[in-house]
Amino acid sequence: MRRQLAAMGSARFDLGALSPHDRMMLSEDCGASLILSAIKSLRQESIHGADIFIRPHGPHALSLVDDLSAEAIDTMQREGFAPALIVETSPRNFQAWLNHGQILDCETSTCTAKNLAKRFGGDPSSADWRHFGRLAGFTNQKLKRRLPNGLMPFVKLRECSGDIYRAAPNFLEEIAALSDKGNNASNHNHQLDPGPPMLPLGRSSRFTRLNLSKSLPSMALRACRMCVYARATDTRRRISTSGSEESSTRIS
Fold first, then answer.
1. What average pLDDT does the segment 84-88 reach?
2. 231 phi/psi in degrees, rounded to 5
3. N or C end: fewer C-beta atoms under 10 angstroms in the chain?
4. What percentage of the chain carries pLDDT values higher than 90?
5. Mind listing the pLDDT tens digit for each residue in 155-201?
6. How many domains is the chain partitioned into structurally?
7. pLDDT of residue 197
8. HSE-up of 158 (CA within 13 Å, CB side)?
9. For residue 244, is it within any domain?
10. Contacts of 185 (CB under 8 A, 6+ apart)
11. Parallel, antiparallel or unpaired: strands 51-56 and 85-90
12. Which residues have C-beta within 8 Å of that of residue 152, sequence separation ≥ 6?
């Protein structure tokens, strides 16, 4: 875990624990030291069936490419897109984080992630600037990833150089050109549509911010701002007296 956080190169992170009931507990704006001090609590969450996720906090210099084969990883490295870190989420299934060497604005970051997913056969539904990746050292709870012996596979860190990929300067120029072309076409047609806001985790949902600090066993996590992403129900009832927000989200 320590090596993964270091290779991601961010000063602050968002940490997520997704329960078997599709409830997301999110600790926002955490330093690496705080996350490392919460390992015991995270292990308890994992033992009880939670998936553990990580992403940089705020705009960042990375792109996540999800659901890659070993062959796709080889192609990326051969073509100058060597990932800063590679996480094996289940046997021969990978997530790759690429380091662009500069912080990208949200729109450019999403465009870049979608282009990388298309180029290397990643999951397009996971391609946006706010998408979570899995944190190494915990199990992947997806039933379809279960091992032949019935156990859940551990998420493993395979590479963690943290390096900027060789093709970054030229590739970002391509993305800028695509973005300019798209903006010009949209402005010409007066049909610029930003679409729904990008939020991290999957299924259409209503989320409300709750103070869960009293239920957490770890003093480290108590220092973080906590919220829950609750799956939408037919009644869509509010579960917080302080108000709620509504959005469309995705999960991989």
1. 98
2. -60, 140
3. N
4. 69
5. 999 999 999 999 999 999 999 998 876 665 555 444 444 443 434 44
6. 1
7. 40
8. 19
9. no
10. none
11. unpaired
12. 139, 140, 141, 145, 146
Q: How far, in Å, are 23, 36, 116, 251 from residue 201 at the CA level? A: 10, 23, 20, 4
Using CA atoms, how far apart are residues 64 and 174, in angstroms rounded to an integer? 18
Tell me which residue has tokens 């998936």: 51
Is 105 a member of any domain?
A: yes
Q: Does residue 166 form part of some domain?
A: yes
Among residues 101, 70, 228, which one has the least CA distance to residue 167? 101
Q: Is the dihedral of CA 22, 27, 30, 36 positive or negative?
A: negative
The amino acid sitting at 246 is E
Q: Residue 70 and residue 79: Cα distance in Å, rounded?
A: 14
- Helices and strands (DSSP H and E) totals, the chain: 7, 11
Q: Alpha-carbon distance 117 to 127, whole Å? A: 7
In a domain, 194, yes or no: yes
Range of the domain at 99: 2-232
Q: What is the pTM of this model?
A: 0.76
Spatial distance between the Cα atoms of 17 and 37, rounded to a whole number of angstroms: 16
Tracing tokens 């330093």 back to the chain, one arrives at 31
d(CA 11, CA 6): 9
